[in-house]
Amino acid sequence: MTVLVVATGNPGKLKEMQSYLEGTPWQLQLKPPELDVEETGATFLENACLKASEIAKVTGEWAIADDSGLSVDALDGAPGIFSARYAEDDGARIDRLLMELGDRSDRGAQFVCAIAVANPQGEIVIQEEGIARGEILRDRQGSGGFGYDPIFYVPKVEKSYAEMTPEMKHQFSHRGLAFELVLPKLKLLEGD
Length: 192
Ligand code: ITT
Description:
By secondary structure, the chain is of the alpha/beta class.
């Protein structure tokens, strides 16, 4: 079995990535905790590629990275690629977003997830993006998930991400959609 290093330090993302990769022939390995790649890219995809490539080169193994975030229409796409850097923890990030949006009625937003896979030489062999549209709630709703989940509402299923089961979030989320594109390509690679 070939090792695939899951290049994230975010426990919420890690849990979802591990569950999406379950059943593939890859032997998943955690990223060394001291390895932190600076996200200097201008897009989600650039940052995902930077993280996958750097972690692959340092570990000498295949690596998969996720760069994701929430872009709010009325805030000109903020926090976007700066979603993790918006405030110091998940609670404060949600508080800041709700404060910036105030009682504006245009509450449209999208979650974006870019996934990149690098070979042990650090070359990017897969890059895909998933986008999920929704609305920013006025208050937190639900207790599951992580990050901005309690304030991101998907009208089609009348639930916030934090109210979804893991299976439902897989079906409707940005990360689930990105993995739908990535998994068949990973399968082909394993056959090489
Ligand atoms: P790594 O770079 O180590 O993977 P990170 O948390 O720094 O971890 P990002 O730079 O990609 O990751 O930032 C993503 C931000 O968006 C972060 O604040 C997440 O909590 C949030 N986020 C991403 N996907 C999410 C999801 O499915 N639900 C809620 N919040 C999410």
